[in-house]
Amino acid sequence: MFRAVCHKSCRPTLLAAFSALLLATVYTHVAFAGTFSVTDAKAETEISEVSRVYIDGKLAAIFKLDDKTREKTIRITTPVGRIDHTYTLCGEITIRTPEGRVETHEVSNDGLLHNPDNRRLYALGSNNFTEFFLLDPEDPSVAEHYPTHSNVCSMPVS
Fold first, then answer.
1. What is the pLDDT of residues 45-90, one digit of tens each?
2. How far apart are the C-alpha atoms of 53 and 31, rounded to whole Å?
3. What is the strand order of the sheet 102-114 is part of?
4. Distance (Å, whole) CA 63 – CA 67
5. 90: exposed, middle or buried (C-beta count within 10 Å: 0-12, 13-18, 19+)?
6. Contact in structure between 145 and 153 (CB atoms under 8 Å)
């Protein structure tokens, strides 16, 4: 029968090895909070734009754009524990039509971000105010969006 014997001199070494193994196990199973940025810009046809970004169901950023602030970039911190995150973009965009009328359009979409850490995403609208989504031009697979309006963006009625 083999019997391991540890003298007082090897106890600190064993404790350090066990601690390192435990920390390595914890670090491989826990994702840390990350950050990414979102840039939103006012189109030439817009008078103003107010947009909200929700990450994992929580309000993460608000953009207020007009002729004085035509573009804004906000750094967003993602929640701990995940590398994929749901997102929702909500926007109220006011435009002047070619006929001179002022119209406000509500636009919203949901989507999914795949490991957005250290990325710069852009909030984009398309299809005549029917789609509003995030895009990473360097890697479009980082952000996907669903072409349906989001229920998160419903405005309260007073």
1. 899 999 999 999 999 999 999 999 999 999 999 978 889 999 999 9
2. 22
3. 58-65, 46-55, 84-96, 102-114, 143-146
4. 13
5. buried
6. no
Give the confidence band of 128 by pLDDT, cuts at 50, 70, 90. confident
Global pTM reads 0.75
CB 61 within 8 A of CB 121: no
pLDDT of amino acid 9: 56
Contact 153, 108 (CB under 8 A): yes
For the record, the structure tokens of 127 come out as 């299809």
